[in-house]
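Case study: Flagellar motor switch protein FliM.
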Amino acid sequence: MSTEIMSQNEIDALLSALSTGEMNAEELKKEQEERKVKVYDFKRALRFSKDQIRSITRIHENFARLLTTYFSAQLRTYIQISVASVDQLPYEEFIRSIPKMTILNVFEVTPLEGRVVLEINPTIAYAMLDRQLGGKGSGVNKVDSLTEIETRLMTTLFEGAIENFGEAWDTITEMQPKLSDLEVNPQFLQMVSPNETVIVISMNITIGEVSGVINICIPYVVLEPIIPKLSAHYWMEEKHKVRQAHEQESLEKVIRATSLIVTAELGKSEISFSDLLNINIGDVIPLDQKIDKPINIKVDNKPSYFAQVGQVKKHLAIQIMEKIKEGYEDDE
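Here is what the predicted structure looks like once written out:
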């Protein structure tokens, strides 16, 4: 419950109005009670808290960055994508808000139940198609007459985009998005009941001089099993979660089995290319490393230890002397 602090002047004015009869105390009390009543529309049920909306926004800001990289690489041009808004509304309202003819990518998000819709503004979709076919990225709107080749090209492009959706949600849950249908008429798309609450994430996209909107519609029933994971409290718990003994042991086992390249650098030398071509068996190449100085031991090409050269049972060997401290720079 929020409270407002009144200034001294406001208090004096209120007391003066009550004493002169300009304001009735009973009416004031009644007005305050009436303000406590809040109209609730059951057709527009708000099932997501503000905290959960913020989490969904963060996830799709990451998705926007992934899409920017993906589309820029596929279309070989600079593309800018950013989250414009995240709202919860009835499914029927979402259908009414998008064009009558548009590009609707319907995909499943196994193991979660239900389907998700990625709606692409037709002008943007054709700008992408134009880039794929070697054009400059001009946007047109003739979605009602998609050819089989155009449909196939768009399907292939958006299949890759949808894979990034799963990567963006990876911090919350594992899912395997799979494109199941490409539709152009929203009236033929009935995923949930008209009054079902959905989350709609709108993203602005710019391709060259063409701008448009990408809408992602996620029904509540899809996210219902993972709703608790969308709270900041869950994120904090995961961040400070203590690993179990078996998890720690398994992690150490994997780390110990990791292969590393260890290199003993005996020294360096510079010679001309002609000398290199004329090298024969028995020739000696002088190194810049003094025999009484320690050599560098590199682990995955990073200087890590000082060592000295020796011999163990007729085998050449090196003996570790000390660890190279952080900040050490090689003589290269």
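For the exam, be able to explain this: The chain has a mean pLDDT of 80.
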